[in-house]
Design brief:
The structure is a single chain. By secondary structure, this protein is α/β, with parallel strands linked by helices. It folds into two domains: about 1-105 and about 225-320, Rossmann fold (3-Layer(aba) Sandwich), CATH 3.40.50.150; about 115-225, DNA polymerase, domain 1. It is about 40% helix and about 15% strand. The protein has 15 helices and seven strands. The chain has a seven-stranded mixed sheet, sandwiched between helices. Strand 1, helix 2 (about 25-35) and strand 2 form a beta-alpha-beta unit. The chain is globular and about 60 Å long.
Length: about 325
Amino acid sequence: MLGEVLEYLDPKPGEKFMDCTLGGGGYTAALAERVGKKGLVAAFDLDNLAIEHARKRFEKNNNIKIIHGNFKDLHKIMAAGESAEIAARADSEIPEVPVFSGIVFDLGLSSAQLEDRRRGFSFQLDAPLDMAFGQRTENAKRTTEYIVNRYPASELARILREYGEERFAGRIARAIVQARKEGEIKSTGELVNIIGGSVPAVYRHNKKIHFATRAFQALRIATNDELGNLENALPQAVRILKRGGRIAVVSYHSLEDRIVKNFFKTESRNCVCPAEIPVCQCGHKAVLKIITKKTVLPAAEEVAANPRARSAKMRVAEKI
């Protein structure tokens, strides 16, 4: 949704922008072109592959700052010595201050991640069962392999149901637990076969969506704590937005979209006290104005060119 993001953020020469999900670098490149040599795009990603590719792609772009990190730690990234250049080029002595005219989050996977045979993001390739964006050792009890081979059936079913909206969550979870009695599940191919063997034939042969799509999505979200990271990142992003600056979030999952919707709604109200309290006691003040009353969907041309974009939804808010 590059065109839609640029339309709503409306970058101008000399301004500062942040791309919190660098990925393949599409947003970063477009923003850098718009802000020009006197502007700045701070772009970061947790994924080592994305950082490696971006550093090669943008090595001659002096108006792009590439940072390796998780957007849940946005305040730490802004305060770190590595990112002092951002504050300096934004004419600020304090790293975490409102200096950005726009911030974008695109919560989808990049093509490079899906096509990496060393990773387990895609059910189309037989790869190690590793869906982590960063280093696998960051949380030993939240690697994909650990989740699949160690979590009880009830917790696996919850993950599949809540994060993947998988209708056969219980059946798949029980099949995984049964299969791992014969030996640890190590690859995406093994997992796909287990899922396929546990769901009805009509579900396996659905032409609109692969039968393993929802389960893989759920495991990826659980592995990376994607929903928790988003909840932590949104208020931090608003703090470093200038007044009149905009934040755009492109999500691909109903739970992600709900988090963004509720955050924007809460931060656009002057009071968040329960309805039964007649006089405000919370002291909450609105900091956002919602720009998109409804989600913005990708154009038909984009969906035709990239079917993965069909589930994209964008919401935009402006700091007041």
